[in-house]
Structure formats: structure tokens, C-alpha cells
Amino acid sequence: MLPLPSIEEVKAVKQSEITTAADRVLVAAGAEYGDMERQTWDQQYAEARTYQADPDTDVPLLTAIATGRGMDVATLADRIIANRAAWVALSGRIVGQRLAYQDALDAADTAEDVAEIVVEYVAGG
């Protein structure tokens, strides 16, 4: 007969389940965006905030994106701000849930305690 896994081994498997499931939700939410585009998000957001504070300021990235999309910079800035707020809300919910699962895992003393942790992320608000 094979020996039962140690509590450390059981926890390691559950840890992987917790993090993999959280990553799956967040990756799916951003699936339409490539890595290179994601690298511009902070600048897009900074320029959008700057533009909303002063529409006469130079916002080269937003201007280029808006021109490429055939829309005005004001509309693009509004969309960027809204998208950022939606992403912050979603990622905050998922990270909060992941940390709650982590707290439960850290508190688990037995394999049965670990088995009672059912990992089901809720993305909606």
C-alpha cells in the first residue's frame, strides 16, 4: 500500500489549484489584449487622466491610438478610464478571493481541512 501524502504535499496541490484558477479568470478577462499592448496600459491611463484634467496637453500615445481607431481623443480617454476601473474591480475581487482561499489553506491542519476548501472564483460584482 502506498503511503498517504503528507499535509505539506496536500497543501501544495491545493495551493496550485488556488493560484491556477485565479490566473485562469484574470487571463480570460484580458484575452483580447496582447502582451505588447498591455505594456502601454500604464501610459494610456496616465495620458487619459492628464487629458481629462487638461484637454490641451500633449498625449502622444492616445493621439496615435485615437487616430488609428478613427475616434476622438476624449472618447478614447473616457474608455481607457472606464476599462481601468473595470479591471481594478475585477482583479481586486479575484485577488481578494484568492487571499481568502490562501488564509483557509494556511489555517488547515489536516488533509480533510484542505479538502473542504472548494475553489470557485466569482468574477461578477
Question: What can you see in these coordinates?
Answer:
It is a single chain. With 125 residues, the chain is an all-alpha fold. The radius of gyration is 21 Å and the shape is elongated. The protein has one domain (7-115). 72% of the residues lie in helices and 0% in strands. The N and C termini lie far apart (47 Å). The chain is built from six helices and no strands. Helix 1 runs antiparallel to helix 5 (73-107) and helix 3 crosses helix 5. The mean pLDDT is 97.
Number of helices: 6
Percent helix, as a range, is over 70%
Instruction: Report the structural category.
Output: mainly alpha
Rg from alpha-carbon coordinates: 21 Å
Number of strands: 0
Low-confidence stretches: none
**Biggest sheet details:** none
Number of domains: 1
The ordered string of helix (H) and strand (E) elements is HHHHHH
CA(first)-CA(last) distance: 47 Å
Beta fraction: under 5%
In quaternary terms, these chains amount to single chain
**General shape:** elongated
Task: Name a few traits of the molecule.
single chain, 125 residues, mainly alpha, 72% helix
